[in-house]
Task: inverse folding
C-alpha cells in the first residue's frame, strides 16, 4: 500500500491524531495451550512522527506500517522519562523513578555549574539488585528470556542483564553503528534475535530486542543514504542518513516478523514496538508536538507504540487512552498468567483491557519525575533542554512543574496538542487540582524534590556558546 494513503486506512489522519478512547477487538484469547511469547522491539530515540503510519512522507517504514495495520496503534503512549536510562529502568521494574532512583543518564549535574540554581537529586546509574525485573518474573512462569542490544542499567556484575533474569545476552562490543568489518549493528542484533527465536521456538520466550538505532551517532548504510538523497523531503523530515537508519530498523522488524511467520509462531506471540523517549531534535521533528528528547513537553515523552496479538487485538485499531512504560510489566504478567513477585511494588496498570475492548483504564493519572538538568544540544534549547521538573497527565489535562522557580504550566492536550497555551493563570482551579495530585503522588512515592541552592550559581552567567551534544 502507498505509504501516503496508509494513515487514512489506519484511521490516523493528521487532523485527528487525538481520538477518544479505543477501538479494539472483542475477541477471544488464542486457543493454544502454550503460553504466549513476547517480542518487545525497543527503538532508541525514535520520534512520535518518525513512521509512515504516523504520516511521515519522507521516512519509509512499510513493515512497521503493516504491523500497525495488524494490531492496535496507541496514539497517547508515553515513555517514563525524556531520556534513555530511566525509561529502561521503569520498563524493567514496572516502577516509577522514585522507587529505583534512576532519574537520568549519567550525572544529574549536566551543563555549566554557574547556571544551575539548584543542587539536583543524586542519580543511580545501576538498577538496584533488589528490583525484580520482568525477566525475573517471567522466568518463574517458564519463560526463556533474551536481552539483545542496549541494556544501560549496569555493565558490571551484579547489574548486568545476565544477572537480572535474562538467559541470553548479546551486547554491542564497539562504538557507533558499524564494527571494524563494517557490519551494521541493527542487522547484527536482528540476526541474533532470529537465532534466539529459532532456538526457543518450542517453549515460551521473551525477546527484548533493544536496538541502539536511531540514537546518535547518526550513521547508516551508504546505499540507503543514497536512496534518500534522491527522495523529496517533507516539511519536517529531511535528513537522509536518519531516514536510512529508520529504514534499517524497519527491515529489522520485517525480518523478525517473517521469522515468526516461518515458524508458525505469529498467532501465539505478542509483538510490542516502542521507543524510549522522543526523537533527537537535530535529526528529526516531532511537530505538531512541542519539544524533543530531554524535555517533559510532549515531543520528549510521547512515543510510538504498536501491539499485535492475533486473536486479541483488532487489525487497524487505535487507542488514545494514555499508557506509559511501567504498564508493560503487569500487562505481560497477566498475559503470561505469571504471579506478581512478592513484596515488589508495581506502579503500572495492565493494559490488557485496552488490547481487548475497553475504552479506559482504572487509574486517575500518570506521572513523571525528572529532578536533573539537561544541557541544550542546539540553539533553540538554550539555556536548558530542561531544568529539574515533574509532570502529571490526567485525562486531557497536563501540568508541568519546574522546581527552580516553582513555575507551573497547564495544557489541555485535546485542544492544544502543541502545548502553546499555558492555562495555569486562566484556569487556577484545574491547575491546583493537578498540582495537588502531583504533590500527593510525590509524597506517596517519596520522590525527592531538589530545593538546596547551588552556591556556584551566578545569575549573571551567560549561556555557553559551544553546542553540546
Result:
Amino acid at each position: 500500500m502507498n505509504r501516503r494513503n496508509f494513515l487514512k486506512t489506519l484511521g490516523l489522519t493528521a487532523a485527528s491524531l487525538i481520538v477518544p478512547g479505543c477501538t479494539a477487538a472483542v475477541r477471544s484469547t488464542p486457543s493454544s495451550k502454550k503460553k504466549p511469547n513476547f517480542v518487545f522491539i525497543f527503538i532508541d530515540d525514535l520520534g512520535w512522527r518518525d513512521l509512515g503510519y504516523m504520516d511521515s512522507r519522507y521516512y519509509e517504514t512499510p513493515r512497521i506500517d503493516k504491523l500497525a495495520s495488524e494490531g492496535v496503534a496507541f496514539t497517547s503512549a508515553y515513555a517514563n522519562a525524556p531520556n534513555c536510562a530511566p525509561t529502561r529502568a521503569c520498563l524493567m521494574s514496572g516502577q516509577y523513578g522514585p522507587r529505583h532512583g534512576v532519574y537520568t543518564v549519567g550525572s544529574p549535574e549536566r551543563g555549566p555549574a554557574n547556571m544551575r540554581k539548584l543542587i539536583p537529586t543524586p542519580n543511580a546509574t545501576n538498577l538496584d539488585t533488589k528490583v525484580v525485573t520482568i525477566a525475573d518474573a517471567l522466568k518463574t512462569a517458564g519463560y526463556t528470556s533474551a536481552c539483545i542490544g542496549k541494556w544501560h542499567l549496569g555493565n558490571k556484575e551484579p547489574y548486568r542483564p545476565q544477572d537480572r533474569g535474562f538467559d541470553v545476552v548479546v551486547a554491542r562490543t564497539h562504538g557507533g553503528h558499524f564494527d571494524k568489518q563494517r557490519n551494521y549493528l541493527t542487522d547484527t542484533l536482528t540476526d541474533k534475535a532470529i537465532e534466539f527465536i529459532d532456538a526457543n521456538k518450542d517453549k515460551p520466550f521473551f525477546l527484548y530486542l533493544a536496538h541502539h538505532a536511531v540514537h546518535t551517532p547518526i550513521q547508516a548504510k551508504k546505499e540507503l543514504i543514497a536512496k534518500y538523497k534522491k527522495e523529496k523531503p517533507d516539511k519536517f523530515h529531511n535528513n537522509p542518513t536518519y531516514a536510512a537508519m529508520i529504514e534499517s530498523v524497519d527491515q529489522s522488524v520485517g525480518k523478525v516478523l517473517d521469522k515468526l511467520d516461518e515458524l508458525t509462531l505469529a498467532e501465539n506471540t505478542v509483538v510490542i514496538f516502542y521507543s524510549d523517549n522522543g526523537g533527537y531534535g537535530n535529526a528529526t521533528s516531532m511537530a505538531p508536538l512541542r519539544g524533543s528528547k530531554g524535555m517533559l513537553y510532549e515531543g520528549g515523552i510521547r512515543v510510538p507504540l504498536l501491539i499485535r496479538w492475533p486473536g486479541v487485538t483488532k487489525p487497524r485499531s487505535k487507542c488514545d487512552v494514555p499508557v506509559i512504560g511501567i504498564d508493560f510489566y503487569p500487562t505481560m504478567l497477566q498475559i503470561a498468567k505469571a504471579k506478581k513477585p512478592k513484596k515488589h511494588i508495581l506502579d503500572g496498570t495492565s493494559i490488557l483491557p485496552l488490547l481487548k475492548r475497553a475504552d479506559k483504564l482504572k487509574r486517575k493519572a500518570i506521572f513523571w519525575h525528572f529532578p536533573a538538568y539537561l544541557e541544550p544540544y542546539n540553539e533553540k534549547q538554550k539555556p536548558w533542554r530542561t531544568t529539574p521538573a515533574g509532570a502529571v497527565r490526567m485525562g486531557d489535562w497536563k501540568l508541568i512543574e519546574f522546581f527552580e522557580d516553582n513555575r507551573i504550566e497547564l495544557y489541555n492536550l485535546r485542544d492544544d496538542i502543541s502545548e502553546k497555551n499555558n492555562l495555569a493563570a486562566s484556569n487556577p482551579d484545574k491547575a491546583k487540582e493537578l498540582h495537588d495530585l502531583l504533590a500527593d503522588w510525590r509524597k506517596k512515592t517519596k520522590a525527592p524534590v531538589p530545593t538546596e541552592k547551588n552556591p556556584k550559581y551566578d545569575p549573571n552567567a551567560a549561556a555557553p556558546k559551544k553546542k553540546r551534544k
About this structure: The first helix runs from residue 3 to 10. The mean pLDDT is 93. The domain at 3-356 is CATH 3.40.720.10 (Alkaline Phosphatase, subunit A). Residues 8 and 15 are 11 Å apart (CA to CA).
